[in-house]
Amino acid sequence: MERVDLAVVWDLSYTPDRPYIPLLADEAFPVCSPEYLQRHPEIVSDTSALLDANLLHFDVAHTGFMTWKLWFAHFGINIPLHADADMYDAYPFLLKAAQDGEGVVLGWRGLVDRMIEDGMLVQVGPSVVNRDTAYYLQYRTDSPRAESIAQVVQWFKQSFDSEKTDRIQKKDR
């Protein structure tokens, strides 16, 4: 990281001395294909109805990112992780499985928005914001390229919607 001028990170602890700007909150919500929803309309009736859905899991190891267990816990529902759960170690493959109608996945705001807009996925449950994690642009101020870095940082500040970043900034205050 000593040679990196700019980085999109979710963990600020690797270079805590560097300034940063918030980009995206770790906001997740259940999504599935329109076809899956058509076959299983009960999953939008209430949160607990999702327990009977084929939940596809993203293997986030111990990163702190939202999991089905954390998402359900937000609603006071404890779910065990079954040994036969459909686990994916690459998010693009997980999203492809959801688009193909294989089940319901946790979609992250900023990553699945376009797929929802295009009708490839539909949101079938409420959003949960994990206040412990987010994506940030972290940068160096002591680089010989400081002027160029400042231009890039300014572009990011102008490009990201202030409403999205407000939720993260409130956490950091």
How far is the N terminus from the C terminus?
A: 25 Å
The outline comes out as elongated
* CATH topology heading: D-Maltodextrin-Binding Protein, domain 2
Major β-sheet profile: 5 strands, antiparallel
Beta-strand percent range: 15-25%
**How many structural domains can be distinguished in the coordinates?**
1
Helix/strand layout:
Blueprint: E1 6-9, E2 20-32, H1 34-39, E3 56-58, H2 68-73, E4 86-88, H3 91-99, E5 105-108, H4 113-117, E6 122-123, E7 128-139, H5 146-159, H6 162-172
Parallel strand pairs: 3-4
Antiparallel strand pairs: 1-7, 2-5, 2-6, 2-7
Characterise the protein shown here.
The protein is of the alpha+beta class. It has a single domain (about 1-165), classed as D-Maltodextrin-Binding Protein, domain 2, CATH 3.40.190.290. It has helices at about 35-40, 70-75, 90-100, 115, 145-160, 160-170, and strands spanning about 5-10, 20-30, 55-60, 85-90, 105-110, 120-125, 130-140. Strands 1, 2, 5, 6 and 7 form a 5-stranded antiparallel β-sheet that branches. Strands 3-4 form a two-stranded parallel ribbon. The longest helix has 14 residues, at about 145-160. It is elongated.
Keywords:
alpha+beta; 6 helices; five-stranded antiparallel beta sheet; 24% strand; two-stranded parallel sheet; 173 residues; 29% helix; disordered C terminus
